[in-house]
Request: fold
Amino acid sequence: MTEDKTNRIPELDGIRGLAILMVVIYHYGYLTIDAKTSVIGAYFRLFLKYFYTSIDLFFMLSGFLIGGILIANKGKKNYFKAFYLRRACRILPLYFFSILLVYTICSFGIGAGTDWWFDKNVPVYSYFLFIQNFFIVFHETFGNRFLAITWSLAIEEQFYLILPLLICLLNRKWMIVVLSIGILSAPFLRQNTNNYLESFLMVYCRFDSLFTGVLLAIAVKNEAFLNFCRLHRQKLWNLLFLLLAITLLFLFRIMKLGVYNSHIWFLLIWFVLMVVVVTNKDNFFSNCLRSKLFLISGKYSFGIYIYHQIVIGMLFLLFRGKIPKIEDVNDLFVMMISLVITFAISYLSFHYFERKFIAFGHRFKY
Reply:
Protein backbone atom coordinates (compact mmCIF):
# COMPACT_ATOMS: atom_id res chain seq x y z
CA MET A 1 0.00 0.00 0.00
CA THR A 2 2.98 2.21 0.21
CA GLU A 3 6.00 3.31 -1.78
CA ASP A 4 8.99 5.60 -1.74
CA LYS A 5 8.97 9.15 -3.02
CA THR A 6 11.53 8.42 -5.71
CA ASN A 7 10.45 9.96 -9.04
CA ARG A 8 6.94 10.48 -7.75
CA ILE A 9 4.33 10.72 -10.49
CA PRO A 10 1.22 12.68 -9.43
CA GLU A 11 -1.11 10.45 -11.46
CA LEU A 12 0.08 7.40 -9.54
CA ASP A 13 -0.71 9.17 -6.27
CA GLY A 14 -4.13 9.73 -7.82
CA ILE A 15 -4.48 6.03 -8.62
CA ARG A 16 -3.61 5.23 -5.02
CA GLY A 17 -6.22 7.75 -3.94
CA LEU A 18 -8.81 6.13 -6.20
CA ALA A 19 -7.97 2.70 -4.79
CA ILE A 20 -8.17 3.74 -1.13
CA LEU A 21 -11.48 5.55 -1.67
CA MET A 22 -12.90 2.41 -3.27
CA VAL A 23 -11.69 0.31 -0.33
CA VAL A 24 -13.23 2.64 2.26
CA ILE A 25 -16.51 2.96 0.35
CA TYR A 26 -16.69 -0.82 0.02
CA HIS A 27 -16.11 -1.37 3.75
CA TYR A 28 -18.25 1.56 4.91
CA GLY A 29 -20.95 1.06 2.30
CA TYR A 30 -21.26 -2.39 0.75
CA LEU A 31 -20.38 -4.33 3.91
CA THR A 32 -22.52 -2.23 6.25
CA ILE A 33 -25.66 -1.38 4.27
CA ASP A 34 -28.60 -3.72 4.76
CA ALA A 35 -30.03 -4.23 1.25
CA LYS A 36 -33.38 -5.22 2.79
CA THR A 37 -33.79 -1.85 4.51
CA SER A 38 -34.56 0.14 1.36
CA VAL A 39 -34.56 0.00 -2.44
CA ILE A 40 -31.93 2.76 -2.50
CA GLY A 41 -29.70 0.68 -0.24
CA ALA A 42 -30.10 -2.33 -2.50
CA TYR A 43 -29.11 -0.37 -5.61
CA PHE A 44 -26.23 1.30 -3.77
CA ARG A 45 -24.85 -2.10 -2.78
CA LEU A 46 -25.27 -3.28 -6.35
CA PHE A 47 -23.15 -0.37 -7.59
CA LEU A 48 -20.45 -1.11 -5.02
CA LYS A 49 -20.36 -4.85 -5.68
CA TYR A 50 -16.95 -4.94 -7.38
CA PHE A 51 -15.22 -2.24 -5.36
CA TYR A 52 -13.33 -4.97 -3.50
CA THR A 53 -11.21 -5.45 -6.64
CA SER A 54 -9.53 -2.13 -5.84
CA ILE A 55 -7.11 -4.23 -3.79
CA ASP A 56 -5.90 -5.68 -7.10
CA LEU A 57 -5.21 -2.11 -8.21
CA PHE A 58 -3.25 -1.54 -5.00
CA PHE A 59 -1.17 -4.66 -5.61
CA MET A 60 -0.52 -3.74 -9.25
CA LEU A 61 0.53 -0.23 -8.25
CA SER A 62 2.79 -1.65 -5.55
CA GLY A 63 4.40 -4.03 -8.04
CA PHE A 64 4.95 -1.18 -10.48
CA LEU A 65 6.47 1.21 -7.95
CA ILE A 66 8.53 -1.26 -5.94
CA GLY A 67 9.60 -3.08 -9.09
CA GLY A 68 10.68 0.21 -10.66
CA ILE A 69 12.72 1.18 -7.59
CA LEU A 70 14.48 -2.20 -7.41
CA ILE A 71 15.19 -2.33 -11.15
CA ALA A 72 16.65 1.19 -11.05
CA ASN A 73 18.95 0.26 -8.15
CA LYS A 74 19.90 -3.27 -9.17
CA GLY A 75 23.58 -4.00 -8.60
CA LYS A 76 24.16 -1.12 -6.22
CA LYS A 77 26.12 -1.69 -3.03
CA ASN A 78 23.24 -1.22 -0.58
CA TYR A 79 20.53 -2.76 -2.78
CA PHE A 80 19.03 -5.02 -0.11
CA LYS A 81 19.92 -2.94 2.94
CA ALA A 82 18.46 0.33 1.66
CA PHE A 83 15.33 -1.32 0.32
CA TYR A 84 14.41 -3.19 3.49
CA LEU A 85 15.31 -0.37 5.87
CA ARG A 86 13.25 2.11 3.85
CA ARG A 87 10.31 -0.30 3.74
CA ALA A 88 10.62 -0.89 7.48
CA CYS A 89 10.60 2.83 8.25
CA ARG A 90 7.58 3.40 6.04
CA ILE A 91 5.42 0.48 7.16
CA LEU A 92 6.37 -0.83 10.59
CA PRO A 93 5.88 2.22 12.87
CA LEU A 94 2.23 2.84 11.93
CA TYR A 95 1.47 -0.85 11.49
CA PHE A 96 2.86 -1.88 14.91
CA PHE A 97 1.17 1.13 16.49
CA SER A 98 -2.19 0.01 15.07
CA ILE A 99 -1.77 -3.48 16.57
CA LEU A 100 -0.98 -2.01 20.00
CA LEU A 101 -3.88 0.44 19.64
CA VAL A 102 -6.35 -2.36 18.88
CA TYR A 103 -4.95 -4.47 21.71
CA THR A 104 -5.58 -1.52 24.06
CA ILE A 105 -9.10 -1.00 22.71
CA CYS A 106 -9.95 -4.66 23.29
CA SER A 107 -8.43 -4.59 26.77
CA PHE A 108 -11.20 -2.12 27.71
CA GLY A 109 -13.77 -4.67 26.56
CA ILE A 110 -14.80 -2.84 23.40
CA GLY A 111 -16.10 -5.43 20.95
CA ALA A 112 -16.32 -8.25 23.49
CA GLY A 113 -18.66 -11.01 22.36
CA THR A 114 -18.35 -10.07 18.68
CA ASP A 115 -15.86 -10.87 15.95
CA TRP A 116 -14.30 -7.43 16.56
CA TRP A 117 -12.22 -9.15 19.21
CA PHE A 118 -8.94 -11.04 19.24
CA ASP A 119 -9.48 -14.59 18.01
CA LYS A 120 -7.28 -17.32 19.46
CA ASN A 121 -7.19 -18.88 16.00
CA VAL A 122 -5.40 -15.78 14.70
CA PRO A 123 -2.88 -15.08 17.50
CA VAL A 124 -1.52 -11.62 18.20
CA TYR A 125 2.06 -12.60 17.30
CA SER A 126 0.94 -13.51 13.76
CA TYR A 127 0.17 -9.84 13.07
CA PHE A 128 3.65 -8.78 14.16
CA LEU A 129 5.22 -11.44 11.91
CA PHE A 130 2.97 -10.69 8.91
CA ILE A 131 1.72 -14.27 8.77
CA GLN A 132 -1.88 -13.63 9.85
CA ASN A 133 -3.13 -14.55 6.38
CA PHE A 134 -1.95 -18.15 6.93
CA PHE A 135 -3.98 -18.43 10.14
CA ILE A 136 -7.00 -16.74 8.56
CA VAL A 137 -7.00 -19.20 5.68
CA PHE A 138 -6.30 -22.29 7.79
CA HIS A 139 -9.01 -21.54 10.37
CA GLU A 140 -11.36 -19.84 7.89
CA THR A 141 -11.85 -16.81 10.11
CA PHE A 142 -10.75 -13.19 9.71
CA GLY A 143 -9.84 -12.98 13.38
CA ASN A 144 -9.96 -9.52 14.96
CA ARG A 145 -12.09 -7.34 12.68
CA PHE A 146 -10.24 -4.17 13.67
CA LEU A 147 -7.16 -5.71 12.06
CA ALA A 148 -8.79 -7.87 9.38
CA ILE A 149 -7.61 -5.59 6.57
CA THR A 150 -3.95 -6.21 7.48
CA TRP A 151 -3.99 -9.45 5.46
CA SER A 152 -3.07 -7.33 2.43
CA LEU A 153 -0.02 -5.94 4.24
CA ALA A 154 1.03 -9.52 5.00
CA ILE A 155 0.85 -10.28 1.27
CA GLU A 156 2.94 -7.23 0.44
CA GLU A 157 5.59 -8.09 3.02
CA GLN A 158 5.79 -11.63 1.67
CA PHE A 159 6.05 -10.14 -1.82
CA TYR A 160 8.96 -8.00 -0.61
CA LEU A 161 10.81 -11.17 0.37
CA ILE A 162 10.47 -12.53 -3.17
CA LEU A 163 10.84 -9.63 -5.59
CA PRO A 164 14.22 -8.12 -4.57
CA LEU A 165 15.84 -11.55 -4.87
CA LEU A 166 14.28 -12.21 -8.29
CA ILE A 167 15.41 -8.87 -9.67
CA CYS A 168 18.89 -9.34 -8.20
CA LEU A 169 19.41 -12.83 -9.62
CA LEU A 170 17.67 -12.70 -13.01
CA ASN A 171 18.48 -10.78 -16.16
CA ARG A 172 15.73 -8.91 -17.99
CA LYS A 173 14.80 -11.82 -20.27
CA TRP A 174 14.45 -14.38 -17.49
CA MET A 175 12.71 -11.86 -15.27
CA ILE A 176 10.01 -11.43 -17.90
CA VAL A 177 9.68 -15.23 -18.19
CA VAL A 178 9.30 -15.72 -14.43
CA LEU A 179 6.84 -12.84 -14.11
CA SER A 180 4.77 -14.19 -16.99
CA ILE A 181 4.63 -17.65 -15.42
CA GLY A 182 3.50 -16.12 -12.13
CA ILE A 183 0.81 -14.04 -13.87
CA LEU A 184 -0.56 -17.00 -15.83
CA SER A 185 -0.43 -19.44 -12.90
CA ALA A 186 -2.26 -17.23 -10.36
CA PRO A 187 -5.78 -17.67 -11.85
CA PHE A 188 -5.22 -21.44 -11.98
CA LEU A 189 -4.07 -21.47 -8.35
CA ARG A 190 -7.12 -19.45 -7.28
CA GLN A 191 -9.44 -21.91 -8.99
CA ASN A 192 -7.82 -24.86 -7.20
CA THR A 193 -7.57 -23.64 -3.62
CA ASN A 194 -9.13 -25.35 -0.60
CA ASN A 195 -11.45 -22.42 0.15
CA TYR A 196 -12.29 -18.93 -1.05
CA LEU A 197 -10.18 -17.25 1.63
CA GLU A 198 -7.07 -19.00 0.33
CA SER A 199 -7.80 -17.74 -3.19
CA PHE A 200 -8.14 -14.22 -1.84
CA LEU A 201 -5.51 -13.94 0.90
CA MET A 202 -2.42 -15.89 -0.19
CA VAL A 203 0.45 -14.22 -2.02
CA TYR A 204 0.74 -16.91 -4.73
CA CYS A 205 -2.91 -16.27 -5.65
CA ARG A 206 -2.08 -12.59 -6.12
CA PHE A 207 0.96 -12.99 -8.34
CA ASP A 208 -1.02 -11.82 -11.38
CA SER A 209 -1.73 -8.35 -9.98
CA LEU A 210 1.66 -7.97 -8.25
CA PHE A 211 3.73 -9.30 -11.15
CA THR A 212 1.73 -7.39 -13.77
CA GLY A 213 2.80 -4.21 -12.03
CA VAL A 214 6.45 -5.28 -12.11
CA LEU A 215 6.14 -6.26 -15.77
CA LEU A 216 4.74 -2.83 -16.55
CA ALA A 217 7.68 -1.24 -14.69
CA ILE A 218 10.00 -3.14 -17.04
CA ALA A 219 7.93 -2.25 -20.10
CA VAL A 220 7.93 1.52 -19.50
CA LYS A 221 11.74 1.45 -19.70
CA ASN A 222 11.36 0.29 -23.31
CA GLU A 223 11.02 3.12 -25.79
CA ALA A 224 9.29 0.89 -28.34
CA PHE A 225 6.55 0.07 -25.82
CA LEU A 226 6.07 3.74 -24.97
CA ASN A 227 5.88 4.73 -28.63
CA PHE A 228 3.38 1.97 -29.33
CA CYS A 229 1.14 3.09 -26.48
CA ARG A 230 1.34 6.72 -27.51
CA LEU A 231 0.61 5.86 -31.14
CA HIS A 232 -2.45 3.83 -30.13
CA ARG A 233 -3.53 5.94 -27.17
CA GLN A 234 -7.00 6.53 -28.60
CA LYS A 235 -7.50 2.77 -28.99
CA LEU A 236 -6.37 2.21 -25.40
CA TRP A 237 -8.76 4.93 -24.29
CA ASN A 238 -11.60 3.29 -26.23
CA LEU A 239 -10.70 -0.13 -24.80
CA LEU A 240 -10.86 1.20 -21.25
CA PHE A 241 -14.31 2.69 -21.83
CA LEU A 242 -15.48 -0.54 -23.47
CA LEU A 243 -14.32 -2.62 -20.50
CA LEU A 244 -16.07 -0.26 -18.07
CA ALA A 245 -19.25 -0.36 -20.17
CA ILE A 246 -19.27 -4.17 -20.18
CA THR A 247 -18.79 -4.08 -16.40
CA LEU A 248 -22.20 -2.41 -16.15
CA LEU A 249 -23.68 -5.49 -17.80
CA PHE A 250 -22.11 -7.60 -15.06
CA LEU A 251 -23.43 -5.27 -12.37
CA PHE A 252 -27.00 -5.53 -13.61
CA ARG A 253 -26.63 -9.27 -14.18
CA ILE A 254 -27.27 -9.05 -17.89
CA MET A 255 -24.03 -10.99 -18.19
CA LYS A 256 -22.49 -13.23 -15.53
CA LEU A 257 -19.08 -12.71 -13.95
CA GLY A 258 -18.02 -15.27 -11.36
CA VAL A 259 -16.07 -14.39 -8.23
CA TYR A 260 -12.86 -15.97 -9.51
CA ASN A 261 -13.14 -14.43 -12.96
CA SER A 262 -13.78 -10.98 -11.49
CA HIS A 263 -10.12 -10.75 -10.50
CA ILE A 264 -9.02 -11.42 -14.07
CA TRP A 265 -11.55 -8.99 -15.53
CA PHE A 266 -10.66 -6.10 -13.24
CA LEU A 267 -6.96 -6.87 -13.50
CA LEU A 268 -7.36 -6.14 -17.22
CA ILE A 269 -9.20 -2.90 -16.46
CA TRP A 270 -6.61 -1.73 -13.94
CA PHE A 271 -3.78 -2.67 -16.30
CA VAL A 272 -5.23 -0.64 -19.17
CA LEU A 273 -5.83 2.27 -16.78
CA MET A 274 -2.23 2.12 -15.57
CA VAL A 275 -0.89 1.97 -19.15
CA VAL A 276 -3.04 4.92 -20.23
CA VAL A 277 -1.95 7.01 -17.24
CA VAL A 278 1.76 6.10 -17.27
CA THR A 279 2.30 6.51 -21.03
CA ASN A 280 0.13 9.55 -21.64
CA LYS A 281 -0.59 12.25 -19.07
CA ASP A 282 -2.84 14.28 -21.34
CA ASN A 283 -6.19 12.49 -21.10
CA PHE A 284 -9.42 12.53 -19.14
CA PHE A 285 -8.41 9.93 -16.56
CA SER A 286 -5.00 11.48 -15.91
CA ASN A 287 -6.59 14.88 -15.39
CA CYS A 288 -9.11 13.39 -12.96
CA LEU A 289 -6.40 11.57 -11.04
CA ARG A 290 -4.53 14.86 -10.56
CA SER A 291 -7.54 16.36 -8.75
CA LYS A 292 -7.14 17.27 -5.08
CA LEU A 293 -9.58 14.59 -3.94
CA PHE A 294 -7.50 11.74 -5.35
CA LEU A 295 -4.09 13.29 -4.63
CA ILE A 296 -4.91 14.00 -0.98
CA SER A 297 -6.47 10.56 -0.53
CA GLY A 298 -3.39 9.00 -2.11
CA LYS A 299 -1.02 10.95 0.10
CA TYR A 300 -2.68 9.74 3.29
CA SER A 301 -3.75 6.35 1.92
CA PHE A 302 -1.68 4.21 4.27
CA GLY A 303 -3.13 5.86 7.36
CA ILE A 304 -6.64 5.79 5.90
CA TYR A 305 -6.27 2.08 5.21
CA ILE A 306 -4.94 1.29 8.68
CA TYR A 307 -7.37 3.46 10.64
CA HIS A 308 -10.69 3.25 8.80
CA GLN A 309 -11.85 -0.08 10.24
CA ILE A 310 -10.64 0.80 13.73
CA VAL A 311 -12.59 4.07 13.69
CA ILE A 312 -15.90 2.73 12.39
CA GLY A 313 -15.68 -0.33 14.62
CA MET A 314 -15.09 1.74 17.75
CA LEU A 315 -17.80 4.30 17.03
CA PHE A 316 -20.47 1.73 16.26
CA LEU A 317 -19.60 -0.42 19.26
CA LEU A 318 -19.45 2.58 21.62
CA PHE A 319 -22.39 4.67 20.40
CA ARG A 320 -24.67 2.18 18.67
CA GLY A 321 -23.91 -0.89 20.77
CA LYS A 322 -23.45 -3.12 17.74
CA ILE A 323 -21.06 -4.03 14.97
CA PRO A 324 -21.06 -1.63 11.97
CA LYS A 325 -24.42 -2.01 10.24
CA ILE A 326 -26.41 0.77 8.58
CA GLU A 327 -30.08 0.19 9.31
CA ASP A 328 -31.36 3.70 10.00
CA VAL A 329 -30.44 7.39 9.80
CA ASN A 330 -28.51 7.33 13.08
CA ASP A 331 -26.31 4.52 11.76
CA LEU A 332 -25.70 6.51 8.59
CA PHE A 333 -24.68 9.52 10.67
CA VAL A 334 -22.16 7.44 12.65
CA MET A 335 -20.74 6.10 9.39
CA MET A 336 -20.27 9.63 7.99
CA ILE A 337 -18.62 10.78 11.23
CA SER A 338 -16.34 7.75 11.01
CA LEU A 339 -15.30 8.83 7.53
CA VAL A 340 -14.45 12.37 8.66
CA ILE A 341 -12.55 11.17 11.72
CA THR A 342 -10.61 8.63 9.67
CA PHE A 343 -9.34 11.29 7.26
CA ALA A 344 -8.56 13.69 10.12
CA ILE A 345 -6.58 11.07 12.06
CA SER A 346 -4.76 10.00 8.89
CA TYR A 347 -3.74 13.61 8.22
CA LEU A 348 -2.40 14.06 11.76
CA SER A 349 -0.76 10.64 11.74
CA PHE A 350 1.11 11.37 8.53
CA HIS A 351 2.39 14.80 9.49
CA TYR A 352 3.18 14.21 13.15
CA PHE A 353 4.14 10.54 13.22
CA GLU A 354 4.74 8.73 9.92
CA ARG A 355 6.65 11.48 8.14
CA LYS A 356 9.46 11.46 10.69
CA PHE A 357 10.10 7.77 10.11
CA ILE A 358 9.84 8.20 6.33
CA ALA A 359 12.47 10.95 6.43
CA PHE A 360 14.71 8.75 8.56
CA GLY A 361 14.31 5.90 6.10
CA HIS A 362 15.44 8.05 3.21
CA ARG A 363 18.78 8.52 4.92
CA PHE A 364 19.63 5.03 3.73
CA LYS A 365 20.96 5.36 0.21
CA TYR A 366 21.24 2.64 -2.41
Notes: The two ends are 22 Å apart (CA to CA). The mean pLDDT is 92. Residues 217 and 279 are 11 Å apart (CA to CA).
